[in-house]
Every structure is written in C-alpha cells, then in structure tokens.
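Interim report, section 4.2 (structural modelling).
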Amino acid sequence: MIEPVTIAERVRKGSSQRREQEKENLRRAIMDAAGELLLAQGYDGFSLRQVAERIGYSATTIYLYFKDKDELVFSLIDEAWDRFGRELEQAAASIADPIAQLRVIGRAYFNFGLNNPVYYQLMFMQRSDFLFCAKPDEELPRIASFVVLTNAVQAGIEAGVLKPGDVQAYSLTAWSLVHGLVSLWISMPQLITEGIVRDNMDTILDVAIGGLLLQK
Amino acid sequence: MIEPVTIAERVRKGSSQRREQEKENLRRAIMDAAGELLLAQGYDGFSLRQVAERIGYSATTIYLYFKDKDELVFSLIDEAWDRFGRELEQAAASIADPIAQLRVIGRAYFNFGLNNPVYYQLMFMQRSDFLFCAKPDEELPRIASFVVLTNAVQAGIEAGVLKPGDVQAYSLTAWSLVHGLVSLWISMPQLITEGIVRDNMDTILDVAIGGLLLQK
DNA sequence: TAATCTACTTAACAGTGTTAATCAAATTGG
DNA sequence: CCAATTTGATTAACACTGTTAAGTAGATTA
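Predicted structure of the assembly:
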C-alpha cells in the first residue's frame, strides 16, 4: 500500500475521511429519527417530511442518502431482522436438549414480538415482501434466522424424541402456531391482550411441541 | 295505517320511494366498484377518486353516501364478516360430533382465507380495529362468529372428548393455529405457497385438535 | 484566482382524503 | 303555472403525501 507523502495529500485524505464520516453520521441520524417516528406514529402515519423536519433538514435531503422511502424503511427492518436473528440464536445456544431448545426458541420468538410489535408487524405482516429483496452485500438472506428452528426440529427427530417426518413441514407448523398468537395480539390488542398472550404462550408451545412429539 | 287518498299524495309517495331506491342503487354501485378495485389493486392502491371514476361520478359524490373512506371500506368488511359468519355456521351445522365439527369449522376457516385473501387481510390483519366499531343497528357484534368455535369446544368438553379447561383459552389456541398459517400465506405467498397451506392444513388441524384432545 | 464539485435547498408535479362553495334540475307550495 | 326550496351532484380548494428537476451557497481543486 502506498502511504501519502506530501502534507497536501495527507490533508486531502483526512478531509475526505471526515466527509465520509459525516455522511455516515447523517445517514444514521435519518434512520434514528425514522425509527423513533415509526414507533411513535406507526407505519401509516410516517412521512419523509416529518423525518426530515425532526432532524432539521429538507425532505429531499433524504433522497441523497436513501433511494426512496422503501429503502429507508427496509434499512430499519433489516436491523430488526438482525436483532431477531441474534435473539433466536442466543436462545438456541443456551441449551442443548432439542425439546428444551424448541421451548426457548419459541419463547424468544414470543418475546421479540411482544417487545417489538411495530417491527414484528412490518417484518411478518405488512412488508414481508422485503424478505425477498436481495441484500446489498453477499450476507445470508434474512430468512436464514429460521435455520435455528429447523435445526432444532432436525436434532429432535435425530434424537428420536420427535416423530420422524418432513422437517420443513414441522417447522412451518411450529412457526404458524407462535406467529398466530403474536400477530393476533398485534392486530387486535383490545381483544387479545398482552396478558392473554403471556398466559397462553406456554399452552401454545405445549400444543406445538406436544403435537409434534413422538407418540408412545 | 292511513292510505294515500289523492292522486297527488300517491304520486308523491311513489316518487319518494323511487328516489330512495335510486339512492340505494348508487350506494350499491359505489360499494361494488370499491370492492372490485379493492380486489384488483389491494387496500393500498385504492383511492376514492378511482372508485368514483369507475362509476362515472365525481369523487366527492361518495361523501354523499359514506361519511368518509373508512366507512366505505368498513361497509365492505362488514359484508365479508357476514359471509364469514355464514360459512362457519353452515360448516358447524353440517355435522354433530364435536371433534368432527371442530375439523369442518377449521376447514371452513381455511377456505374462507384462501378464497378471500384481501378481505381476510383487512378483517384480521390490517383493519381489525373495525371489529370494535359499533354496528349501526342493534345486530350481533361481528366477533359473534366465533361463538361457533367456542360452542364446539364447549360441546367437546361436555362430551368428555376434550380435556376440561378454559373454553376461551382453548378456542384462542385453536384460532391462532389456523390464523397463523393463513396469515403467513397472505403475508408471504412466495415463501408459504397456497400448496403448502393446503398440504399443511390437516396437519395443523391435527395438532390443534390433538393438542386439545383428552389424553388417555 | 477561476473552475468544479458537493451538499443541500426551493419549486414543482401528480397524487391522496376531505371540505366549502356552487349550480342545475327536480320537487314543492301558493 | 310560477316562485321558492330542496336535492344531487359538481368544481375549486386545502393540506397532505412521495418524488424529480432545477438552482444555489460553500468547500475543494487545478
């Protein structure tokens, strides 16, 4: 690598880095403001003009940092997917027994939904089209988070504690069980209160795991 | 009741009825156009101006027949709830055995979702706030459709084929199971295809009913 | 110092839901 | 039969939205 030699070159490089950094900062500020607004107003009452006003810039400035509104929202959802994936992996790593693992994964899933209703709604109910947008870099696709689940089911079958069968189908069944309750709470919190969700969480997991358990 | 005697009175009454009828017709035409547009464009790409254009009226005319956009959409959802309720009742009435009844109700639920994805989405995922709007007349609340489910569960417990327990909790569990799969399909049809839903329908019902079944 | 480039702004377009003012035609009362 | 009024619809307008194009200070470069 060639080092800058003259002072002028060094200054130029420093200034370029500084500008790069400031650009990154503003991008971050836009996302933070957008995130706050999203949580406060919800996805519908969420406008670029409001985001801009919140950080003291004109609305069109956002277009210098994001292609359009979708790209901004998608960046936020992407971060939520990262958190989601980490929490699921963390839960799975906390215990070895397949059945216990399915339980903690399920609980982690419930907790993510309960703690991030707005993002859950975007990820799984409203903007799941985002799942199928290619990521800019060659990272794993978002949906890879579910490998945690299929792995646990697979391990359970191999250990002989789950009925042999289609791993994908079993995982889908388990997924739809937990998703059903979480999404019902998000859609109609007045009818399905958070308390009801918490009370029924374990029942759902019982039914899910019990339904898949090897019948003696 | 006093009959109109003079010709003038009779004409007046007839004309009044005619105008009433025409008003009803236009209201119906608005709803039909709105329904078609809803199915074609989805809830997001659905505007009053487009509805108006489709029936050859100015956009503001709609406000003479509906308080606002929500009331128009709600009227459509209301009709969907009617169809939903009828289909569930019809299914439940087709068979007496509680377990078999739970099965046919579940299947009817799946079929409604598969046949009416746009309305299902509005009813259970996007505009479920509508559930809690008072109906104009003193009819039963929309949610009454679920009595069909709780009745079947109740009957199952009384017949001794389901584990005794909280009827509401059991019904909720069953509901979230079927809702989970249907709503996943609606949110991400590319990942959860209709075929997958049809293939897993019975598995889900097995797990749901099996999980609630009296353990011997 | 002059030219260029960068970050940002204002102006504008096409669209939305919605309200107020208007207008013609039908209905009514004398 | 004519005047007053009500009815059903319209156009104009407001305040929003996402988005694009043109313009503008200020830093950077040659």
